[in-house]
């Protein structure tokens, strides 16, 4: 009898242990024991399951659409699998950490890592605080709007330059206060033809010029600055489309803030209907502009006014124009990063550089990996160069108001550059020694960290597109991690990299 009771107790105990284990596996994101929280996760699980089934329920999807959905579902499944592995491999992670703590080098790295993580969290919370305080400046009246020169440099854009010029001409801006200049930078395709077509349609509202040879975007803008008569210069890329109220919203800060030297527009992706990379970049751009630049704007120190849409006070431009056009790096002429360089030089003058969330522009981005990494390399090299230039003045009294915000932004960017190689070396070491731990912890971290961009985009726009933030983070972590180290090593190299016509 006692034997039967003992067996029964063991059986009951075994079943209980199995139920506990199953419960923990099912709730692998967090060990949830609260009934109410468990119900919430259960509801979330079934909602996700329903979302996935509805994802594939449409029969009229194209192959591209089905591929996009498959990638999103795969992203979700991979991250969920990674979280499960992290939960199951807790003893291995504990052993790994103990091994590191038992060595001086490992302990030093652990303390440094914790310090950096704590700093990043504090910096993020600070940016969030600034974001919630940010409000875009509303458009001033027609009478108050300044005279404005729009400069559109173009190289190998084809018909898209015609679309760009047409969208600018359709702007809700007093026509008598608007000067529109388009400059063909020695294109090898039919860009000049489409400029001429735009001229035929718009007449005296548009003036077009053709560079005798391709000299680069900086030289095309330089010609436009010297020909412009407006109180404010606006530069717009020739593959970008502006909304009707974009221009008036963009230049209004110059009226309300006498010390405003430049304004950054709100850039979104134009070609994000089908291709996966533009969909990812669209979510990334929203985070970069509507969150990051909004926070920087509260400090009066937006670090880069984008080439796709930016405005500059005429006086501020001519104060630095000779230095800007003749800028060199390590003895070579600078032919990239003209937007970041102009922003840097205007900040150096003590002006505020602001961001206007209500000034929208849609721009084309690369649809293939090769074009994407080339664009990021160019941005990375410019970032390295301009951070070095910023170091020369940021700790001086370059502005009458507080310079603490600009200095903090500079330090943050510098840390990202400085830590590029240590992070790369640690990642390679972790991959070689503990590949499963690296893969699972990295993907789980992406799930946690990228959830904020997902929620941010979902709140601002829609949920279905926001999921691309996860996919983009995975792509960047595993496919573009080498960009910053490579950009640092090749910062002296010139070349636009993405301006030539595609080869057959």
TrEMBL record:
Gene3D superfamilies: Spore Coat Polysaccharide Biosynthesis Protein SpsA, Chain A
Localization annotation: Cell membrane
GO MF assignments: hyaluronan synthase activity
Keyword Hydrolase: no
One GO location term (cellular component): plasma membrane
Gene Ontology biological process terms, A to Z: extracellular matrix assembly; hyaluronan biosynthetic process
Residue intervals passing through the bilayer: 66-87, 107-126, 408-430, 436-457, 469-489
Pfam annotation, one family: Glyco_tranf_2_3
InterPro entries according to UniProt: Nucleotide-diphossugar_trans
Presence of the UniProt keyword Transferase in the record: yes
Record keywords: Cell membrane, Glycosyltransferase, Membrane, Transferase, Transmembrane, Transmembrane helix
Record protein name field: Hyaluronan synthase
Species assigned in the record: Flavobacterium lacus
């Amino acid at each position: 009898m006692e034997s039967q009771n003992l067996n029964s107790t063991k059986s009951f105990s075994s079943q209980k242990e199995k139920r506990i284990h199953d419960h923990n596996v099912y709730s692998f994101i967090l060990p949830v024991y609260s009934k109410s929280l468990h119900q919430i996760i259960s509801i979330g699980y079934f909602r996700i399951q329903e979302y996935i089934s509805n994802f594939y329920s449409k029969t009229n999807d194209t192959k591209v659409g089905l591929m996009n959905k498959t990638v999103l579902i795969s992203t979700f499944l991979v991250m969920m699998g990674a979280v499960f592995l992290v939960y199951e491999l807790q003893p291995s992670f504990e052993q790994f950490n103990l091994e590191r703590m038992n060595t001086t080098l490992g302990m030093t790295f652990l303390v440094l890592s914790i310090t950096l993580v704590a700093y990043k969290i504090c910096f993020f919370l600070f940016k969030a605080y600034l974001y919630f305080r940010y409000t875009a400046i509303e458009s001033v009246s027609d009478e108050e709007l300044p005279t404005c020169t729009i400069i559109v440099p173009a190289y190998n854009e084809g018909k898209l330059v015609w679309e760009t010029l047409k969208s600018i001409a359709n702007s809700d801006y007093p026509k008598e206060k608007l000067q529109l200049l388009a400059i063909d930078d020695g294109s090898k395709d039919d860009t000049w033809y489409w400029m001429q077509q735009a001229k035929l349609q718009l007449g005296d509202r548009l003036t077009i010029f053709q560079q005798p040879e391709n000299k680069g975007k900086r030289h095309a803008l330089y010609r436009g600055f010297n020909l412009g008569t407006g109180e404010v210069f606006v530069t717009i890329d020739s593959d970008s489309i502006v909304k009707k109220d974009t221009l008036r919203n963009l230049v209004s800060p110059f009226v309300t803030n006498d010390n405003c030297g430049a304004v950054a527009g709100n850039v979104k992706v134009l070609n994000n209907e089908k291709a996966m990379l533009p969909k990812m970049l669209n979510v990334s751009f929203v985070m970069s502009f509507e969150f990051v630049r909004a926070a920087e704007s509260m400090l009066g120190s937006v670090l880069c006014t984008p080439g796709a849409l930016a405005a500059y006070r005429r006086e501020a431009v001519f104060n630095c124009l000779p230095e800007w056009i003749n800028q060199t790096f390590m003895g070579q002429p600078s032919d990239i990063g003209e937007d970041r360089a102009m922003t840097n030089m205007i900040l150096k003058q003590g002006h505020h550089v602001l961001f206007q969330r209500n000034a929208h522009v849609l721009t084309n981005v690369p649809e293939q990996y090769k074009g994407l990494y080339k664009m990021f390399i160019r941005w990375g090299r410019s970032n390295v160069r301009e951070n070095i230039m910023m170091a020369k003045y940021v700790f001086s009294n370059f502005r009458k108001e507080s310079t603490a915000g600009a200095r903090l932004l500079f330090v943050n960017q510098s840390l990202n550059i400085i830590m590029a190689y240590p992070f790369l070396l640690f990642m390679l070491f972790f991959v070689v020694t503990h590949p499963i731990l690296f893969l699972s912890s990295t993907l789980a971290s992406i799930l946690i960290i990228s959830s904020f961009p997902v929620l941010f985009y979902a709140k601002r726009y829609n949920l279905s597109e926001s999921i691309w933030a996860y996919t983009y983070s995975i792509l960047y972590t595993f496919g573009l991690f080498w960009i910053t180290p490579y950009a640092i090593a090749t910062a002296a190299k010139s070349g636009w990299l993405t301006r030539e016509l595609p080869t057959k």
